[in-house]
Amino acid sequence: MPQLTPVDHKVKHKSTIPANFGDEIELFVREYKAAGSGGTPKPVLMLHGRSVPALPGFDLVLPPKGSSPHPDTSYSWAQDLAGKGYDVFIMDLQGSGLSPRPKMEDPCNANPAQRGLLKTNPGTGTCSPTAPYPHQLGNSQSEWDELATVVKFIRARCSNEKVSFIGWSAAAFVMGPYALQNPGDVARLFLLAPIFPPNGRWSTHTAAPFAPPPGTGLPTQPESKPPAVFGFPMNLTSKAGLQATISDKDLAGHVWQAIMDSDSTGQKWGGPTAGAPEGIMRWRNSYWWGWNTSTVPYGSTLGTAVPVCIVYGDQDTTANTAEELGPVLHFSVPELYKTIPGADKLMIRVEGWDHNPVWERRANQILQQMSWKWLEDKKVYGVESGSWVMDADGVVTEVE
């Protein structure tokens, strides 16, 4: 597929992150217009997870191969959908990628347990005990607010059509509760390896189930500043740490470069040799609530007004963790499927996939096909509901 030309936007937003509450900031949004567009727009919004920003995940473009003068766009999930007739939008939340990163420029604001990654580039020995910002950066409400701003922007560009969501990993914390609270905005939901804590944080206020949970400070007015939970605003991942999660080592170098291209500050940090930084992936530390077995049935929205397709790998130990880890860190994709109340829900477990199939050649192509068919026909490989498993040969079998 020939490379499509993106249009990059800076979408104005009044921040509700405690670190820059009330400031007007600009959220990064990339747009690909549908190839041969005409007629009713079909908008799609793609959202990244906890650590990897949007472009390396959804719009990875490799240099030309062999005698070809054209870049390799086969890994670009976004361009594939645009080529099939969708208006595709990709966004970075604050604290990620090309959107603002408040309180993340100072290495002293990094997770204390990870500051060793910065000993060489830059040093952290001069940190004052009072210098770091002692709070987590984002929270569920601030990220729902950012998503709302971008959805409004997209609908204004697309004849007010509903937007289909595609979310990877921890994007589920943002897109899932948003769909529950705003079903009139969302056409369909496609979740890859969604993070779902069955007993995760939630509000005890029956009249306000998506309010901050007890102990975080409940705003008394709609425009009140959200709670700033104690912690730190920024996590760090080294080049070696990220590349260890990618089996294709040649591709891993391209992924890392794309991450560095999204972070002019992080690319100057890290590495074992003084004066020769190899880069650090900086990612927001957020405090999430409102996504658990108590809230997913809210309004009987998911699986009815908003059809849901879930895809995950049987080797994914990030989205499926042990109960012994406790309510905040125990994740289960099958429990999410079970909790969705409506019948318009489909789950496919793929044998051999881990948490990063977007960076596996064959898996990426299968993902592109799955998401397209769900958006187009509300069917994947001819099935539209139920729990299924796909083996290494692509054979899909229903789970009893």
UniProtKB/TrEMBL annotation:
Higher taxonomy: Bacteria, Bacillati, Actinomycetota, Actinomycetes, Kitasatosporales
GO cellular component: membrane
UniProt GO molecular function: catalytic activity
Record protein name field: AB hydrolase-1 domain-containing protein
Gene3D superfamilies (UniProt xref): alpha/beta hydrolase (3.40.50.1820)
Domain AB hydrolase-1: 44-320
Domain of life: Bacteria
Record organism: Streptomyces albiflavescens
